[in-house]
Each structure stands twice: as structure tokens, then as C-alpha cells.
Design goal:
18 helices, 33 strands, 22% strand, binds oxalic acid, nine-stranded mixed β-sheet, alpha+beta, binds manganese (II) ion
């Protein structure tokens, strides 16, 4: 627990002077209330544990006011008014209820180097090979350093501001697969975004009255930054303490650093809770696919950040008769039910998608989702009060870029930041699945793993069995993207697309995955896909996007055990003619599916080096066995 002082008696008395805040009150009352304070009655409406958390945190951060969010429209309106006044948001006149935020140019992405997991023992977090050193699989912080980091940053950090109390649910309120959090933040941008990305407000407080368990999330932006976007990039830190169900984040208002339900809760703490409770919290999209015969199946797919999860989740299939429906585009919580079926929910309520590259050609469904009720962050603005980003289509002659500067197509810098985002309610998606809020989750038939691999890696490979699939996940690599602070296009290991999101020792995570097959369970098939292979001229070999439905078709046929495959050293791939390429034009299938021996021997060495140097004795033996099998099979091919 954070060692905050208990709230001084007179704090509640002082803040009680502004008494307008009540759950479900009018817009006018809300406007006053956002600058007003929680009344003792309101604080009393919180469950004792939530109240204690709020009081402790208020005593530490010393906000001028405390506002308990009810999630109402009136509250949202008041937040928007306030943020416009503050210069945080600007209305985008061309659309309905759309807003533009420009961040401090130093606060534009997740900061993995400043993200830590705290535990008594370093080994709980860092695999054996990296104890006492920097680990590529998560940063460790000792409890005393954690306390010091909080003590250095939080006392008085909300002076002059309101502390918003956001009760939120990850997953549909009341679903047995859902979990509750309470985020305290001094950023109205975070409150507004959390209301899009999660379910917030009174209904969550109500659920907390039935079960008081929640994750404590404390967030403050700090007092540096540009007008309208307070932040403190020099002192940014994102801390997780799984043992206490606690997340603390300071200095950044941006996405994964500040919307604490997303990466911090749903993945880092989520993975720890999932292990404890015997389920999986994964960086995966979920889609429903209906084949021409009308049979519907769901798949989950893990790709690193900015590798096209949103595009796959909203795909318009080019294969006639296929239909894709979206359950989620980023995170899956999956648990075997009593019948042995793996069921998944999307714990989120919105899409926080990467804008650049999204267009009518690449993702028409996203384009028909995002121009209502959306917050755009760091995109470019048109003269008409619309938005633009690289990859959307022809650039208008004049724009205002993400930094607020005049921009023309001749400008040398991008108009939109490469990690600029849209934050949009999921239920606006025209292909949102009818079961997307199902309390028991959707049944998963297959799991796809993938990344950006310009060379050597075939379009699709089926794992021989679950263990082999876990090895595929453990050895995933991908070109880096703009979603975090890495620069350049280096191929990085990104096991299960979870490298930045593990909440505990990766070796233990693998053991947890290996423990999934149990009597009576129907194990989904696992596949590795790569839409990004290039030829010697640097051109993509596969058209991707809607044509990925051709790969999904093969995947589903394999789920039906159709014998449409041949064995290779990497696993099963379609035989010639098995993949439906009708009407696709010329595709160099030989190169697309080739398994270059030298490349794969080097790849096996690189995987072995990674396992040894990053995981060491915590790596389950099964992974070494699989690596050996790969080497042998490639050598003898
Ligand atoms: C995201 C990410 O924002 O993975 O989804 O970075
Ligand atoms: Mn993601």
C-alpha cells in the first residue's frame, strides 16, 4: 500500500463548502461541480475502501477539489467546456462532437524505459538471466525505490487542480470476467478518454457495493509541459505493484501512460491476476468470422503495437461470402469455461487506434467509425476544421500540423505525429459484433500470432500443437513502431506481442501458457502470420488488409481439420492451391512461403541467444526442446 497520511479532518470540511456535486445532477450543477468538491455525503457514497483510497490520495496530492465521476452526459459536457477553456481540446467543426488535442511534443508515446513493476523479489518480475541488470522483458523497481519515487513526485502535485475519481469497469459491468478499477487523476483529458475507453461512473460504484475489490490507479500529470497540456516528461514514471493491486503514474497525459485501465491494468496487472486465477490477459484483438456457409467462429490475434490489429479487427473481407465482425482491437481476457471452451472478452469500451495509415482503402470501417464522438490526439487539422494524417489520402494544400504549425505538402516533417490517435466508442463501429458485450465472452477457435517481418517469415504457419504454438509466441520478433519511444526500424523480440506489457517474469508467463491444456479443454489451434514480407525490391509480397481474409479462410478450414496443409520445418502451411487466391492477380507464392535455410538457422541462433541472455534458467525446458526441433528440422530440410 502507498504510505499516504490519512486525510486531515479539516480537508473534508473545507472541500464540503462546494456542495453541488451529486450523482446524476444537471449540466449547470456539473459545471460548478467540476470546480467544486465532493461533499461528505458523496464521499460517504463511496465504499469504505474506495473512500479510504480517495482520502489518502487527496491528502498526498492536495487537490483544491475532489470530483466523483458519475459518467453522465452532463458531466462529459462540463469536461469538454472546461478543456476548451483550458486550451486542451479544440472542437473539430467538420464533425459531430469531435475534438482535437495537441500534446506537449515531449509527451507523445508510451515510455517503456520509465515503466516499472514492483515486487519484493526482483525474480518475480525479471527472468533469472537479467537479475540485477537491465531486462528487455520489463523493468523492476524495489519497494523502497517505489515509495521514494512516489514521495518525490506526488506530495502537493494536484494543488490548484481537481482530483477526479473515476470508478471504471474493464469488461461489461457485472460480467464474471470483468474487473473494476478506480483511477484518480488531475487530467480532465484522461477522464474524458476513460469514459470512452472503459465503462465509468455510478453503475460501477453500484457494482463495487456488491464486491469491494478494485485496482487502485493514481495518476497525476505534473506541472511542466505546454499550456493546455500539463505534463512532466523529465520525471515521468509509471509504476505497478501487483501485490497491492496498485498502479501509480506521473508526468504523462498520453494514452497508455495515463489511461490506466488499458496497458497498466488490463495487461500488466491483468497478466498477474490472470495467472493467479488461471486465465490469460493478452495483447490481442478479437474478431468473429462468418464463412459463406453461415458458420461463425471467433479468433484472437496478437500483434505488436501499430502492426495492424485495428485493421484486422475491422477487416472488409475480399473473399466473397465472408463476414468479419469486431469484438475488440487491442486486448483479450480469455478463460476456459466449465465446458472446456476458451472464452474471450474485450475489457475495453473504445478504440485508441493509431491514425496514420488509416484510410478508406486500408480500413473503411474505421473511417466510418471515427468521425463522431471522438478525441483525436496529435493529428493535423484542416482549414475546414477536419483532420488529416499521413496515409489518409491526398494532403490538402494547407494544414496545421500536430504541433500547431502551418504545414504544406512541401514541408519536411510529418503533418500528424506517427503515433497520433483516435479515441472512439466501440459501439459506433458498424461491424461491432452482436456478442461484443456478452458477459460469458465469445468462444475462441484459433489464436494468431504475428509481427512485421520483412524477410524470411512465411505468410502463415500453423503450429503442430499447443507447445509448438507457445514456442512460436515466445520467439516472436517484429520491426519496431512509433507506439513507444524506440526509433528506427530494428527487428526486436516481442514475445506474444507482450514485451512491454508483462506484469511478471516472462519464464513464468510461458509456464502459465504451457499449463493451459488440461483434461476436457478444447485447445484452439495456434498460427503465426506475417502480412509484411517483402521482395528484393522492397515491395510487399502480399496485398494484406481485406485479402487477409484468404488466410483466415485457410485458418478456419484447418480448425475444421480439413487436410489442406503440408508439413515444413516451421509447422504446417497451405499446399499449392490450398490458399484461395482467386481474382488476386499475380502473387509470388514461392517467395511468400519460402523458408530460406540460412535465414532460419540464423533465426534459431538469435532465438537461442535471446532465450539465454534474457530468460536463462527461468525458460521452460519445453522451449529449448522446441528450439532444438526447429534447428534439426531446418538443417535437414
Ligand atoms: C496501444 C499500444 O496503444 O499497443 O495499443 O501501444
Ligand atoms: Mn496495443
Amino acid at each position: 500500500m502507498l504510505h499516504f497520511n490519512t486525510i486531515p479532518e479539516d480537508y473534508v470540511k473545507k472541500t464540503a463548502q462546494c456542495a453541488q456535486l451529486a450523482l446524476g445532477c444537471s449540466r449547470a450543477a456539473h459545471q460548478t461541480a467540476l470546480r467544486g468538491a465532493a461533499t461528505p455525503a458523496q464521499l460517504a457514497s463511496l465504499t469504505p475502501k474506495v473512500r479510504a483510497f480517495v482520502e489518502r490520495s487527496a491528502a498526498l496530492c492536495q487537490p483544491d477539489h475532489v470530483h466523483v465521476c458519475d459518467g453522465s452526459e452532463a458531466e462529459a459536457d462540463a469536461l469538454l467546456q472546461f478543456m476548451q477553456k483550458q486550451g486542451t481540446l479544440k472542437s473539430l467543426k467538420q464533425y459531430d462532437n469531435c475534438w482535437l488535442a495537441r500534446t506537449d511534443p515531449a509527451d507523445v508515446a508510451r515510455v517503456e524505459s520509465r515503466t516499472f513493476i514492483c515486487s519484493e523479489n526482483e525474480r518475480d518480475v525479471v527472468p533469472a538471466a537479467r537479475i540485477g541488470q537491465k531486462s528487455a522483458l520489463g523493468n523492476y523497481i524495489a519497494p523502497s525505490d517505489y515509495e521514494n519515487a512516489v514521495a518525490d513526485r506526488f506530495p502537493g502535485c494536484m494543488k490548484g487542480r481537481t482530483m477526479y475519481v473515476i470508478p471504471f469497469s474493464m469488461g461489461p459491468v457485472g460480467s464474471p470476467l470483468s474487473k473494476i478499477g478506480v483511477e484518480l487523476t488531475d487530467s480532465p483529458y484522461v477522464v474524458y478518454s476513460m469514459r470512452v475507453m472503459t465503462r465509468i461512473g455510478s453503475k460501477v460504484l453500484e457494482a463495487l457495493r456488491q464486491d469491494e475489490t478494485f485496482v487502485k490507479c493514481l495518476h497525476a500529470v505534473g506541472h511542466a509541459g505546454v499550456p493546455g497540456w500539463p505534463c512532466d516528461p523529465q520525471r515521468t514514471i509509471i509504476l505497478h505493484k501487483p501485490a497491492d493491486d496498485e498502479i501509480v503514474s506521473f508526468g504523462s497525459g498520453y494514452g497508455g501512460n495515463s489511461l490506466l485501465g488499458k496497458k497498466c491494468f488490463a495487461l500488466r496487472l491483468g497478466s498477474v491476476i490472470a495467472r493467479r486465477e488461471g486465465w490469460l490477459a493478452e495483447h490481442m484483438l478479437i474478431v468473429g468470422i462468418t464463412n459463406p456457409q453461415g458458420r461463425k467462429r471467433y479468433i484472437a490475434a496478437a500483434f505488436p503495437s501499430a502492426c495492424g490489429k485495428t485493421n484486422l479487427a475491422m477487416m472488409t473481407p475480399t473473399l466473397p461470402g465472408y463476414k468479419v465482425e469486431c469484438v475488440g482491437d487491442d486486448i483479450a481476457w480469455m478463460k476456459f469455461d466449465k465446458n472446456g471452451v476458451l472464452r474471450a472478452i474485450n475489457p475495453e469500451n473504445g478504440f485508441f487506434g493509431v491514425a496514420p495509415g488509416t484510410s478508406e482503402a486500408t480500413n473503411p470501417i474505421a473511417m466510418s467509425t471515427i468521425f463522431r464522438n471522438t478525441v483525436f490526439t496529435n493529428v493535423a487539422e484542416t482549414e475546414e476544421g477536419g483532420v488529416w494524417w499521413e496515409g489518409m489520402g491526398r494532403a490538402p494544400a494547407k494544414l496545421t500540423d500536430w504541433k500547431g504549425q502551418a504545414w504544406t505538402p512541401e514541408s519536411k516533417t510529418p503533418a500528424a505525429h506517427p503515433n497520433s490517435r483516435f479515441c472512439t466508442p466501440a459501439d459506433q463501429c458498424p461491424i461491432i459484433d452482436s456478442e461484443w458485450e456478452s458477459a460469458e465472452g465469445v468462444p475462441i477457435s484459433a489464436i494468431l500470432l504475428g509481427g512485421r517481418r520483412p524477410a524470411g517469415v512465411p505468410l502463415v504457419v500453423e503450429a503442430r500443437d499447443w507447445k509448438h504454438g507457445v514456442f512460436m509466441g515466445a520467439s516472436m520478433r517484429s520491426e519496431s513502431t512509433a507506439a513507444a519511444e524506440h526509433s528506427g526500424k530494428v527487428v526486436m523480440n516481442d514475445p506474444f506481442a507482450m514485451r512491454p506489457f508483462f506484469g511478471y517474469n516472462f519464464g513464468e508467463y510461458l509456464k502459465h501458457w504451457l499449463s493451459m491444456p488440461q483434461a476436457g479443454r478444447k485447445m484452439p489451434k495456434i498460427f503465426h502470420v506475417n502480412w509484411f514480407r517483402k521482395n528484393d525490391e522492397g515491395k510487399f509480397l502480399w496485398p494484406g488488409f481485406g485479402d487477409n481474409s484468404r488466410v483466415l479462410d485457410w485458418v478456419l478450414r484447418r480448425c475444421d481439420n480439413e487436410p489442406c496443409y503440408t508439413e515444413t520445418p516451421l509447422g504446417y502451411v497451405p499446399r499449392e492451391g490450398d490458399l484461395n487466391t482467386q481474382d488476386l492477380g499475380p502473387i509470388d507464392m514461392n517467395t511468400l512461403f519460402s523458408i530460406p535455410k540460412d535465414f532460419w538457422l540464423q533465426e534459431a541462433d538469435a532465438i537461442g541467444k535471446y532465450f539465454k541472455e534474457e530468460v536463462g534458467s527461468d525458460l521452460p525446458k519445453e522451449m529449448w526442446d522446441e528450439l532444438e526441433t526447429l534447428r534439426k528440422k531446418v538443417k535437414s530440410s
